Amino acid sequence: MQDVFDFWWIIYATIAVVIFVKLRSVLGQRTGRERPPYDPYSARDTVRPSTNDNVVALPGRAADMVPKPADAAAPADRWSGIAEPGSPVAAGFDAIVREDKSFDAKHFIAGARAAYEMIVTAFAEGDRRTLKNLLSRDVYDGFEAAIREDGKSVEANLRGFRAGLRAASGAAAQARLDGKRRQGAVRSVASLEAEATAIMPASACEIVTEGLRRTAAFQDAAYAGLYFDRLKIVRDTDARANAGGRLVRETARHLAVRMTFEDVIRVAEAKIAPARFARIRQEIGVANSEPFRIVDFLKPGLEEMCQILPPRLARRILALAERRGWHPHWGMEIESTSLTGYLRFWLLAKLKRWRPRGHRYAQEQAAIEQWLGLIAQAARASADVAIEVAECARLVKGYGDTWQRGVANYQTIEAQVIRPILAGHIPLAQGADAIASARAAALVDPEGESLASCLAEIARRTATVRVAAE
What we know:
By secondary structure, the protein is an all-alpha fold. It has helices spanning 7-27, 43-46, 88-99, 105-124, 128-134, 137-148, 153-157, 159-177, 189-199, 202-218, 221-240, 246-259, 264-271, 274-284, 302-306, 311-324, 339-349, 359-379, 383-391, 401-423, 428-444, 449-469; strands at residues 295-298, 332-335. A two-stranded antiparallel sheet has the order 1-2. Helix 10 (202-218) packs antiparallel against helix 11 and helix 13 (264-271) packs across helix 17. It starts with 6 loop residues before the first helix and ends with a helix.
């Protein structure tokens, strides 16, 4: 088995296939921008004489030597669909472009529209804190006066607007999840942090900001945007449940951890992180000028290898292994301070770009969406129960066998405690305590014996309460 399933051979083969596909997609296709092959004989006859004796025309570049006007006139329809030709708005855009050639009117308008929606929504909800962060002092005073004069009839007129805005936010989150959002529209982490400060409860802002930075470091800014879009839905759920920001705070904490799950790519990044080398050097008391060796002992299994494969292929391999009883593990010793050992981890860490196409990524995103849906469902019954459901994310951690045990324990608690509470089979008054007790038992004993005893006790108490009620 060792000869057939060599872990690093499979990793190298995967990297080679990915590189081949990417190179072929670029080098093996015509884009329409290719120049014709240079012919040294015909080029002499096609080069135009330059009007400037100090300029020498190069072969194959005759077209580039045609003099261009210093300031070409802008086309009349350059702002088509954005501003009327000859209007003050078009003139303003022209003035901006003259000063900043990179100005993009469509992106500018998209940003202005987003700010407008935030302002109108905050006004409709009487959210003075958000308005103060978005408006100048004199403009804010006018909005505050309108709110004080009980202009809350605006809220009734804008219910449809807010519903549409929530639907648009959900669609944007799904677009990121599917990888179909255009790269040019990805928001920066700084803009996400500013928006979080404006719209999130004050008690959760610090955690949300840290979560944005953590998810961006784990993958990219678009992934941080997905984290924030998910939290905006939780914020609305928190408001409806009158949780006072507690649900947003706890969900934000655990969502950031769940979205930055431990996979082989992240483990490889951690193994060669400069901070790790510096910490170990300090712990063993080695001077900066002295060499030292770090040997990592790893034992990855088939599940870890399949994490970076496409979901369909990974599922087939795992299903085949399950049918035939294959549970291979590869014990290995890698010296991460050596050139070859470092390069092994480095190559694996460079697969980060392709993580969203991997099996583990798809698994985690589906599980996260189900967990968030369960929180929203619980919040309709009790804010305390919803918070306890959010806390259950602490069970899912690590990778390999640790991760599998955590997932199994979470699924057991969901099936035997959370779902019965939501279905009314366990009294709601006991719901939060029942979930907390089961979770604590699972954390104390990951093998499941303490959890089994706790679940039996919960079932006994529930049966006693049901008999007493009858």
